[in-house]
Amino acid sequence: MIAWEDVYKVVVAMTPLYVALGLGYGSVRWWHIFTPEQCGAINRLVSFFTLPLFTFEFTAHIDPFDMNYRFIAADAISKVIIVLVLGAWAKCSSSKGSYCWSITNFSLSTLTNTLVVGVPLLKAMYGPLGQDLVVQASVIQGIIWLTVLLFVLEVRRTRSDVSIRAITGDSDQVADNSNKDVEGNQTVIIPSRPSFWSVMKIVWLKLALNPNSYASIVGVTWAFISNRWHFAMPSILEGSVLVMSKAGTGMAMFSMGLFMAMQEKLIACGISLTVFGMVLRFIAGPAAMAIGSIAMGLHGDVLRIAIIQAALPQSITSFIYAREYGLHAEVLSTAVIFGMLVSLPVLIAYYLVLGLLS
Known about the structure:
mainly alpha
């Protein structure tokens, strides 16, 4: 049974994040230290340096030979369910922005803050088993699902950039009307939609240059090697990684505070979208995980842990990506902030209800 001292440990783990958030907010709103351009540069620093090193550091220290692969398969099934539902909604929707909202809704439904909130809370609830499974979920999220999110965001940006360049490059020719073929006939050049392969070529090149796309893969590769042949990471290398990775979560929250300070309202996305995001985070995600877990035959504490970890608050990394790629960052920032505020009573309620149903 979770005790008050366990709740206190979770609060202790979460409070420094809000301190970093407050410092970021105050540095723009009250103290006017950073300009909007500088705030964007700070977010880029977090996105390309501190978060990739943070991801590498925690994935490099797992034991991939001692993972619960039925639990991981259940998590994959839950993500597939969410993707299928969002894909069907995007196809049936008449809104032109449905594809973009599908990306954001995927983040809201599936990507969780497993390390900061999940580890202390699940350890308090279920002991070492809870901690072990939530770390496994975090590693898989970094290797697969955050990489998938990065890929679709890059595809969206690249398609937009290529289309804009095509239109801009041809607009002078279209406006001239003086274009003629070799026989002297009048021609008009109409920009065409970029081909799939031209977009993919650019996307893969960008991903190859983005450390977020391979930080977790390099980390888990090292984990396989080190656990198979019992190698220890050289202290000089580990120290070099730690000096930046320790700042990962704190700097991400600081960047979120900067972003909040530049918005006109505290709840940047409005009440209705905030409520919608909370429903996806705390209801839709756990429901999909329950289906996946039952399908994989999970039971007992493993089933309960699977459902509760799916109801953890919003991933901070999802906001950093949304900010970097300019897609509904106000929605993700609100989801992170309010999600962490309401998550503790919600997760304890899940814990009590699931305990009664056992």
